[in-house]
Amino acid sequence: MRAPLKLYLAGPDVFLPNAAAQAEAKCRLCAEFGMTGIAPFNPDLDMARPAAQLWQEIYADDLRMMRESDAILANLTPFRGASADAGTLVELGWFLGQGKPVFGYSNSAVSFAARSRAQPDDALPGTAIEDFGLADNLMIEGSLTLPLTLPPDGQCRPFDSLEIFQLCLEGIAGWGQGFNR
């Protein structure tokens, strides 16, 4: 019998006011699909430590969880801008560099080009906007083991909705049947 696929659940969900509940819900859904969710939520760390120590401990703890994981499932819903969360993208790149499977979903049905056009053009006016009809930057989508899971009806979901996360788990479950660890 194979061990359950261990998924590192990356994303800016850790910044939500209900981060602990969101992490628990995602881990429960993973278990329903026969997988183990590893949420980078660090409640056991001493949050009273000085910031200079705390961020390093969070980083080290997240790296430990990433090493223990077989694959990443990243929430690539746009966060604080036109694209996915920067920290999540670093984690996605780490898994890609390790040769581990990379999966992602987005609750946004708006194209990357449309979101980019809506951003203020203060920093570099007149720069080109990447328009390949993709949901995010081509390097993000190109890194994924399976296509980015998006709302099938073309309608955006709330940031914390788990509906598209669950659809992504269904795809991973089908893919994972042929995966040997």
TrEMBL record:
Pfam families, alphabetized: Nuc_deoxyrib_tr
Gene3D superfamilies: 3.40.50.450
Molecular function via GO: 5-hydroxymethyl-dUMP N-hydrolase activity; transferase activity
BP terms from Gene Ontology: deoxyribonucleoside monophosphate catabolic process
Keyword hit for Transferase: yes
InterPro entries referenced in this protein's UniProt entry, alphabetically: 2'-dNMP_N-hydrolase, Nucleoside_deoxyribTrfase
Keywords on record: Transferase
Keyword Glycoprotein tagged: no
PANTHER family in UniProt: 2'-DEOXYNUCLEOSIDE 5'-PHOSPHATE N-HYDROLASE 1 (PTHR15364)
Name of the featured protein: Nucleoside 2-deoxyribosyltransferase
Origin species: Acidocella aminolytica 101 = DSM 11237
